[in-house]
Amino acid sequence: MDPIERRVFMQGAMIGTLAFVVDGVETMLTPRQAYAQGVVLRTLKPEEAATLEAVGEALVPGARKAGIVPFVDQQISIPPEEALLEARIMNVRPPYANFYRAALSAIDRASKGAFTALDAAGQHAFIDAMRQGTLDGWQGPPAPFVYFLLRTDAVDVVYGTMEGYAQLGVPYMPHIAPARSW
Amino acid sequence: MANEKVDVVIVGAGASGSVYAAVMARAGKQVVLLEAGPDWQLGELISSDFWGRRIKPAGPPFLLEGKNPFGYVYQAGWGVGGAALHYFANFPRLMPADFKVKSEHGKGLDWPIKYTDVAPFYDKVARDVGVSGDAKAEEIWRPAGEPYPMPPMKTFRGGDVWKRGFESVGIRLAPAAVGMNSTPYKGRPACIYDGWCHVGCPIGALANPLVTYLADARQAGAQVRTHATVTRVLTNPQGNKVTGVEYFDAKKEKQVQEASVVVLAAWSAQNPRLLLNSATDKHAKGLANASGLVGKYLTAHFASGTSAIFDEDLQPYMGTTGAQYFSYDRYDKDAHKAKGAFGSTFIVAGSAQKYSGLGGVANSRGDLFGPELAAFMPRAARGLARINAFGEEMPSVENRIELAGDKDDFGMPLGKITHSYNDDAVALFNANFDEGLAIAKATGAKEVWSNRGAMPTIHLMGGTIMGQSSADSVADSYGQTHEIANLWIAGPGLFPTSGASNPTYTILALSLRGAEHLASSWSAVAG
Description:
The structure holds two protein chains of two kinds.
Chain A: H1 3-10, E1 19-22, E2 25-28, H2 31-37, H3 46-59, H4 63-66, H5 68-75, H6 86-89, H7 96-110, H8 120-132, H9 143-159, H10 162-168
Helix pairs in contact in A: 2-5, 3-9, 8-9
Chain B: E1 2-11, H1 15-26, E2 31-34, E3 62-65, H2 101-105, H3 115-130, H4 135-138, H5 157-160, H6 163-168, E4 174-175, H7 213-219, E5 223-225, E6 229-235, E7 242-248, E8 254-264, H8 267-277, E9 296-309, E10 325-327, E11 345-349, H9 371-381, E12 384-392, E13 400-407, E14 413-418, H10 423-441, E15 447-450, E16 458-463, E17 487-489, H11 504-520, H12 522-526
Parallel strand pairs in B: 1-2, 1-8, 2-5, 3-14, 8-17
Antiparallel strand pairs in B: 4-10, 6-7, 7-8, 9-12, 9-15, 9-16, 10-11, 11-12, 13-14
Helix pairs in contact in B: 1-7, 1-11, 3-11
């Protein structure tokens, strides 16, 4: 079979979608669509979601609209063996919500209030210190590890999707395409 | 609940367990494979860095300690195929000198066998699973063997752009030997170079167990039970034979599978955990552990990566996650002696690059974030290429697996892995960065940098090493434990030293050697 034909053929074998709740109904959406539709969060509290969104956007521009919050919230709300988070393969002990709660709380505490209250330059400086593990008053999972995992989540939703590849101008070329463009 | 007794029960349906299952089932034995994870099908191997995480374990059965904690989960397998469902299928061999490091250098350990004992099995595995490469070209580094059954894979600009740099430092390259099809082979298609090998190849062009030994095993009648988590190996009252294993099924109900022979093929960390958790009054320190060496002499590889951005469209997303080229020109244990280093280095060039994920483009500059990362990604999207130098760590008894006080969902103690690199390894890590940068600068690339970060741990070997007797090791060179004749071990845990080569080809060769020996000595072992 011609390789191109085979790729098209294999796209028919899609499995797996991400389930979000919209207006009380479970719906299959991309995180970007979930963000746009304002899905109800299952696990993250509003202040946690706000911090995650701000940190994600500061780490990878575009992460907010790409749906980092609904992505992480959905992923920490499902059984760990179904999760697609980088935390899964970095030896984080389930339930993963515990890690995110501890990480986001540590960020806000070390921000002397709320990360969202920092201006853009302040957020950038804060993240750079988090990356290097030089933040004063940090209490939580190791700061460079938090940097790595949250950055990966943000990279995932911005660049790891079929939309992300298109944005970079490179072909995705799946053998088996992920459902809903990722 | 007890199940009908079988001839062989194998714990783990990954690379080594699948070989044992195929050989023993073809020999007419009743074989049951117990696998803790799911029964993956090729059609579930979605081309995505997100979905690729599904075929790895969720959460830690191991606590990680030491100066260089072992990166357990991202390298582990979960489900049929094991880690070989997401491996890169680089198929370098160990070299003759790897088997006698202690004798020749006074460091590390010796293997109880020589390269020539394993070489015929490298050739057999190549025929069984399909290897593409140029064996003749490799003869500048190793003794001659059979030609590979397929010619080398296609190369791409992401590999070719490095040639000038390697020439500048006198390093010769050969087409990489890989467990992939450059041409159709045994009913499996040729690779289409889409670069998604690391999340599982669903077309069967890459030699994962689902399309090789595990398929053979099933064809020959082996039974595979998934979501079956083994917690203990059982022994008779005298303690001189194993009688089977205890496991928990998908409903978390305890089961017993009796067998004449037990083969532990659950990777370097899980095998010792099981042996230690199977202690009895006759084996107070754990099974096969009179030497006290169960869980000891863990080794890892470390990679010194170098990246470069070229001013041309390299199509870095094309190719295979495995290498296009490799070299043993720095494999001599003393190749970087002048820099205080000891150990082999194995060099690869030309891996396909995807954009997210652990080995993706974004992580080639893990220090960048915000606007700097946003500027970097389009710049690297078409021009990034990478080389890697894998280094060898000498075995240390301090690098080990033990049982922890904390327990998993089945009441089994978690394992604790303690791992630290010694000064030789750190010096080799640094020397390889230095040379990588020199190579990159000589390519004419417009940006070059070292992928420095925490010293990584790649591949996990040792923990149940082979040797001459129970005074110095856990098993013999076939994997038969010294203390209990019908208890066998398979996989990289048997490696006394690690070399610097990717381990799976050697895992398959040793497993084939061990399984054929088990089959041919069945009466003596199981009688």
